[in-house]
Amino acid sequence: MGRLLFYDDHVKDLINNMIKEKTQKIGLVFGQNTVEKDFIVHLTEVPSKEKEEETGTEQNSKELKSSKDRIKTRETDELDEAWISQYGKQVTRMLPGGLEVLGIFLISPSEIYIHLQSKLRQILFALNKALSRDLRFNVSSDSLERILLHICPITNKITTRTFDVNDYKSTAKPADFKYQSNPLRWHRLNSRYTIDAWIPVSKDQCKQNLLKQIHSGLSPSYVAVINATALIDRKMRQDGDLLDPVGEKKKGKQKSKEHSAQKSFNVDLFLSLLTNNNNLKEVEPIDCVASMVVKGTMQCRGYVHIKATVSDAVRAVKQDIIRSLMARCEIQCEDLLLIEEEQNDPSVVHELPRRVFAPLSQSEITVCDYLFQGDSAGDCLNAFQDLLGLTIAENEVEMDCECAPTSLQNYDADVEERLSDAEELVTSGAKNLIVPVISAAVAALVAGLSYLLLQDT
Q: Which of 66, 371, 390, 438 has a CA positioned 20 to 30 A from the CA of residue 96?
């Protein structure tokens, strides 16, 4: 018997609905990965390029859902690994800590699946590479087996295989796709992460784009999170202990009763002081042309299955912190590219997006999106629908987890003064982005990214 893949009614309903459409589909599998088993929580279709580029007319909709013969029309070259990988990166931003892309699924007749097996394997490896582009900050699970799920809409047969994506020579292994009648149960992890980082930007780094400068500057912060010590509900716990040993003991006595309420745990991370780091190199001067300041507090959230260990819980929280911080910076830089007239204006203030949460259908899990100042709950509904296939009402979106600053007075009082000094140094030949940025925050604590030019480049 191969790897166990557990799923519940939510995933079962998704599969049944997609089978009824009688069209070929490729999509992503989401869930939690452990050493010996996977917990699958959601499936979502990857839209085709044609579907994304067109306006979605009624005629196009009819063509996509015509007949069984239509299933055979998609050619191998339409399974674009770069397109699927990019889609996977976008969707990963919306996942809380502990959840990730576990693999891909294909709905097609068996003969098409056999013909596309080599291409699907290639896509699986490309997807994993795209999602793990910086292994230094990879805090996902230890297992590197990823899923290839095939569903035949004619026979309703489901075939599951796994690949070790760390080994390009690995072959397919059988897996057991196991239905669980009771909903999958999850523990919720809550945490806050406060950052106050000053980032020097050297002459060489100034030639890079803003996103690379930010990620490079935040590297020590990411490493500090990975190496941080954690307390669970203000207690030091052993890594191998069950997160909820009491719940495990009561399990046998409560089989006949309804499921109890979901348990939540508060996780506090303590970063090591730099003065205690014996591996610090000798201090060297850097010829800086700019500096950045990242400062504030983020709301973080993760989920682990009910038999998870303390180590699993801590890993999920650390994963969420790094993923959320990276996502905000990426979204902000993408937004700046669309506002050309503001890219070289040192007096413009850009607020990093704040985080909102919404329920993942029938499960106990919530997913997230990021909204800019002025956006409402309705603005994220399309993202949940288009990227995750979720239909969510406005009143289901948790909008008050983080709050945006109301004025510049809510962050460093000397930022405006430093901006004024920096503007005097800016000449018409400067090509660098010079933007003070305010980020989302929790409980009125403002997270900010201030980018100040120190001298002409």
A: 438
